[in-house]
Write a structure and sequence with these properties.
With 70 residues, the chain is an alpha+beta fold. The protein is globular and about 35 Å long. It has 2 helices and 4 strands; from the N terminus they run βαβββα. The protein has a 4-stranded mixed sheet. The relative contact order is 0.25.
Length: 70
Amino acid sequence: MEVVVIGTDSKYATIVEKMRQRGMKIIMVPGNTVVIYKFDPHTGFQELTGEDAERYISLFLESTYCIEYY
């Protein structure tokens, strides 16, 4: 599960609805922030910022299928 904090000035602010349709939880804040709070059962809790966060979002949006295992 991911929670994404995106600044309203971020380049990703324009594609928030697409990210929500893919199951991402989005929190909009003022500024140019991009932070991802991610939990994975194998790696645990992670906080991705900067280029890591942008790379994660790009890969997530380019993927055809989003599969979550419970």
